[in-house]
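Hypothesis: this fold can be encoded by more than one sequence.
Test: take the structure tokens below, design a sequence, compare later.
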């Protein structure tokens, strides 16, 4: 990793050089001692430029390899992750009261969520460190993405999910050949059990936040946004928030781009949580440490009662001059329908929570109508069909009869 200078603890500043098994700061411990990767920005500038990217035919997240903590030469995991479409969506913009809105559809990734970006880096690191097995606890998407990435390179995967994980996600895990433990308890319970197992058997640890390389993978989503916008910086970037790694990663992209001088200003970050599980919003508003919260929302991917990366996420919000907002499950279901019918993009509940929060932020005057906004859709709706049906309702049910069809379609044609 000739592009990586080292890592530093975001709590005490102690620096480390990358080494197998190093995840958190030894001085601050696992909860507080979250590490952040530091780069040699001169190296990056020499290796890559906006002009150079124009002719780059690597249409995946690996096109930004010099910005990533992976070996700079040799093979990388083969699944095509990233380079997801950024859609300009004027009809959706109008419906929520904006002039310029873009939707980044990360549901098109190989296992259908943004988590593929983090798992691709995790598996690249696991291979570089000579691990034979990888493991994580997850609300679902981190797990399915890890299982898919592991399968693509022949690593074993051990996965811990809470019992409530939607069936679509569990099916993915099993199809990818992972050993799946459905833990009878919350995400926090699954996390704790995985942590003990990882220590016991020495597996590569892909747990969110604990592993500093995951945020770097997630960063690629906004490296792409910047490139897709021709290096013009939006006013706001909207992200749904569970552990806080996606938000932290999205923010780091803009910081990195600023450091290499490819952009001149920074966007504001809008983080969105579900009302039924909003420990990070609460800490943002009230100050002080994040307190454990209930996990009471249909948006399973952001139902994280004990977030593992609140500090990086809170810093991203504060440094960017952004804010956190909550949405109800009703608003999430509404956003799912709205996104689908006005753009043709189908998001899972956590995938559209950002849009629900954006609609609310516009209504409350936090985001102004003329501001340019990018909203991330972080996961595909087919992962959780049961909830989608709740949002969408039932089809017209008719016998094969033209007269009845005419009557049923009255007012719809
Ligand atoms: C994981 C996830 C998020 C939130 O990411 P965090 O890093 O946990 O904050 C949002 N949406 C989807 C679909 C996810 O899978
Ligand atoms: Zn420390």
């Amino acid at each position: 990793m000739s592009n990586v200078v080292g890592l530093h603890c975001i709590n005490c500043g102690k620096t480390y050089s990358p080494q197998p098994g190093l995840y958190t700061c030894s001085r601050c411990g696992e909860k507080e001692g979250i590490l952040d990767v530091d780069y040699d920005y001169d190296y990056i500038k020499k290796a890559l430029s906006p002009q150079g990217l124009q002719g780059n035919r690597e249409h995946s997240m690996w096109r930004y390899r010099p910005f990533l903590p992976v070996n700079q030469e040799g093979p990388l995991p083969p699944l095509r992750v990233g380079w997801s479409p950024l859609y300009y969506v004027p009809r959706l913009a109008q419906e929520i009261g904006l002039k310029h809105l873009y939707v980044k559809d990360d549901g098109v990734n190989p296992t259908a969520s943004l988590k593929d970006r983090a798992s691709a880096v995790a598996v690249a690191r696991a291979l570089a460190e000579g691990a034979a097995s990888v493991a994580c606890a997850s609300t679902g998407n981190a797990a399915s993405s890890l299982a898919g990435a592991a399968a693509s390179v022949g690593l074993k995967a051990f996965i811990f999910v809470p019992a409530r994980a939607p069936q679509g996600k569990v099916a993915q895990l099993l199809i990818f050949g992972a050993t799946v433990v459905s833990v009878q308890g919350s995400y926090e319970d699954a996390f704790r059990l995985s942590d003990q197992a990882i220590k016991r058997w020495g597996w590569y640890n892909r747990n969110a936040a604990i592993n500093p390389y995951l945020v770097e993978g997630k960063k690629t989503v906004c490296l792409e946004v910047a490139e897709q916008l021709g290096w013009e910086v939006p006013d706001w970037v909207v992200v749904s928030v569970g552990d806080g790694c996606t938000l932290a990663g999205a923010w780091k992209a803009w910081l990195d781009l600023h450091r290499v001088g490819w952009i001149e200003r920074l966007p504001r970050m809008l983080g969105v949580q579900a009302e039924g599980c909003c420990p990070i919003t609460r800490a943002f508003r009230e100050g002080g440490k994040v307190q454990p919260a209930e996990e009471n929302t249909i948006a399973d991917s952001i139902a994280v009662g004990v977030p593992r990366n609140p500090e990086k996420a809170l810093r991203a919000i504060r440094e960017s001059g952004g804010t956190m907002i909550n949405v109800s499950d009703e608003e999430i279901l509404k956003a799912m329908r709205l996104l689908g019918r006005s753009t043709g993009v189908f998001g899972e509940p956590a995938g559209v929570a950002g849009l629900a929060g954006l609609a609310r932020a516009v209504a409350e005057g936090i985001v102004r109508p003329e501001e340019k906004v990018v909203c991330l859709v972080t996961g595909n709706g087919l992962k959780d069909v049961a909830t989608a049906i709740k949002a969408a309702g039932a089809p017209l049910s008719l016998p094969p009869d033209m007269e009845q069809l005419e009557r049923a379609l009255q007012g719809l044609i």
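The chain is about 40% helix and 15% strand. Residues 86-112+214-392 form a domain with the Rossmann fold fold (CATH 3.40.50.1100).
Hypothesis status: open.
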